[in-house]
Amino acid sequence: MVATEALGLFSVGGIRLADGATLRGSGNGTVGLGLIQIPSDTPLQDLIDSGDALVMNNASILTENRDVLFEFASEDIIAEGEGATTISNDLKVQRNFATLVDSQIVAGGEGSAQLFQAGDDGYTFDLSNSTIAGQNVLVALNGFRFSPDAGFSTFRLSDGSQVNTALNGELRVFLPQQDGVQVDASSSLNGIFGDQLFNANANLNQSQGLGEIIGQPFPDTEYLGVPGANYAFYLATTDLGPGLFFTANDGRSTYGQTPIDPGLSITRGVLQEGDTLQSIGVGTDFDLNQFSDAGTYMINVDASDLDPSYRLLGTASGTFTILPADLVVTGGTYSKTYGDTFVFPDNDFTVEGLVNGEMIGPVQWLSLGALPDADVMDTPYAVGLSVSGQGAFNPLNYNISFSNGGLTVVPADLVVNPLSQQKTYGDSMLDRTRFEAIGLKNGETIQQVSFNSPGIAATANVGGYDLAASGITAAGNGFDANNYNIELGSLSGGLMVAPAPLLISANNQSKLIGADFVFNGKEFTVSGLKNADSVNRVDLASDGAPADAELGQYVITAMNPMGDLDLGNYDVSINNGVFTVRDEIPLPEAVIQTDNLVYDQFGRYIDFANTLHALTPVNVGEVRQGLSPLPPVEDETADDLVSTTDEASGDVYLRNEIRNSGRDAR
Fold it and tell me: How far is residue 342 from each of residues 45, 368, 379, measured CA to CA in Å?
């Protein structure tokens, strides 16, 4: 908002400027704000708390050459009238007058900044990282009720705030009590920082006690500012005796020791010659003793009996820390076997450092190594402890440390023994599940083991062999060989090599009746040989072999197999063959297109020229000559074939030389 003559804001309640808002008097324009504050009534407290004064946050009030004027009055002043002669007995409340954060009020050129608050409550004038400047600057609190009996008002500057005037200007501040001046070391009045405003007696430099001014405006007093300290404070008190600010000192001790009160310090002001803290009636509420628990305690200044010749500027509390005492619990060195749950022995400890006649017990040692599944490879395991007390013992009063040799987990004994088993000659695989494991823990399992034995070789002869377990090849359910002392056992005669089955079959043979047949020992088939074993010859014999053997079938017997093998490694079975003595040559190739036409067991057929009524006792048919539809074989013509027809059994085509042959033609 910009005005070239006058910009005025008047309110009942609060005025707020924020977020870059600016009130500007351009040229010779002035800016004026007037405000009536809400009465201090309980039903209106929410409105009071929400802010009923000037609040600026990142805002500006500026003029180019004229004044900036604030005049705020409480409703009580209006109700009672400015001419009242006493301070009311109403309860005094703390209220805001002006709060500036990251803001500025600057009266440019010949303009001055005047901020006036009338009322008898306690008012706060608070600047944070903000600036007020002008040819002259006036800040007045508790106007028309300027009395030590008014509320406690404060003039507070922080975070680099400044109040400045022209070199020939005047900076005046009116407030009832000098204790209300709270300017930090980063903030300043015309270049004088907050830690330089007070003298050795904690009284304000450039200050004057005016006494009460009730019902009248502030008088035209002499300006106290000087070059190099261009500011002046005017107070409602006239007796500005030495002021003191006390701070309780910090201290510490160890539990069980008698703590000593660290006392207090004067952080503002000085004692008059001959006075001591004790003589002026100041102390602390320190009441700790050797039985006080470890922890941090607040120490407060007790200035209730302060000598009235001094003013109490304020107090600050200190802290006293009681540190835990050192307590060392020493245990033993422990070990257990994998798979066991370890139980620590009772009262297996010593203790050093107990105070105040206290006792501990029981002590509970704790370790992950005590669990049954604690691995050997993680040993040794740390052992901690849980301490409980007896009587007044409190473990929080001690820094408890412990010393022990830890808990060592040693491997459990595990025996793996082979169980007897059998294999067949020529094989080299064993059943790896044939074993017993003695000593497994925690439900762990072994699925397979390996074995050593001379009998494992495929060439090992039939018989009994010693069998030994040689290693664990498969395990489960958390098994770790590192958790065991493994003993691999053996079993005498534990592996039996059984004979392999060997089958020798005599090959079927046949001959024409009247012929002599001689076996050469090779007429057999063998199955079941192992390794590089071989059978080269077998003794064969049959009653059908001699020339005088009659037509029929005879047994071929086989015996005495011979070759490159040990027959003791085999369970030999022999299948006899069939020797057939027949009266015709074997049936040559012919095309047979029937499933019912059969020949007798000697391979014979009878063809008496044209018709055959019975080929077998159960298959009756008719054979007739005819031209075969089959192509002739080499050196034959189609006329050399005979076609035979049988409606029930199909067609048979026989070669002429077969058709014309017979027993008489033999």
Answer: 69, 10, 14
Half-sphere exposure of 482 (CA within 13 A, CB side): 9
What are the sequence ranges of the domains in the chain? Answer: 2-235, 243-323, 325-410, 414-498, 500-582, 591-665
Residue 659 host element (H or E): helix 656-659
Does 325-410 match 414-498 in CATH topology? yes
Q: Using CA atoms, how far apart are residues 458 and 572, in angstroms rounded to an integer? A: 18
* Neighbouring-strand partners of residue 409: 336
Q: What is the CATH number of domain 325-410?
A: 3.10.430
The residue-averaged pLDDT of 186-215 equals 89
Q: 7-66: per-residue pLDDT in tens? A: 998 887 788 999 999 999 999 999 999 888 766 666 666 655 655 689 999 999 999 999
Per the model's pLDDT, the better-predicted residue between 262 and 329 turns out to be: 262
* 3-state SS class at 397: helix
Cβ–Cβ < 8 Å for 174, 141: yes
Rounded Cα distance, 463 and 538, in Å: 26
Upstream peptide bond of 501 is cis (omega within 30 degrees of 0): no
> pLDDT digit string (tens) for 377-424?
999 999 887 777 666 788 899 998 888 888 999 999 999 999 999 999
Is pTM beyond 0.85? Reply is no
8 Å CB contact between 257 and 288: no
Q: In the CATH scheme, what architecture does the domain 414-498 have?
A: Roll (3.10)
In 3-state terms, what secondary structure has residue 656?
A: helix
Closest CA to 372 of 336, 346, 345: 336
- What's the burial of 578, exposed, middle or buried (CB within 10 Å: 0-12/13-18/19+)? middle
Structure tokens at 200: 């050795």
397-412: burial string, b at 16+ Cβ within 10 Å, e else: bbebebebebbebebb
Give the per-residue pLDDT at 79.
67
Q: What is the dihedral of CA 330, 332, 336, 342, to 10 degrees?
A: -50
- Say how far apart CA 641 and CA 636 lie, in whole Å: 8
CATH 3.90.1640.30 fits 500-582, yes or no: no
Question: What tokens appear for 262 in the block?
Answer: 């660290």
CATH topology of domain 243-323: Ribosomal Protein L9; domain 2 (3.10.430)
Tokens of 143: 């106007």
Of 158, 220, 213, nearest to 185 by C-alpha is: 158
Q: Work out whether strand 113-118 and strand 171-174 pair parallel, antiparallel, or are unpaired.
A: unpaired
Side by side, which strands form the sheet with 421-424?
421-424, 490-498, 463-476, 445-452
Pairing of strands 192-193, 537-542: unpaired
Cis peptide, bond prior to residue 454, ω within 30 of zero: no
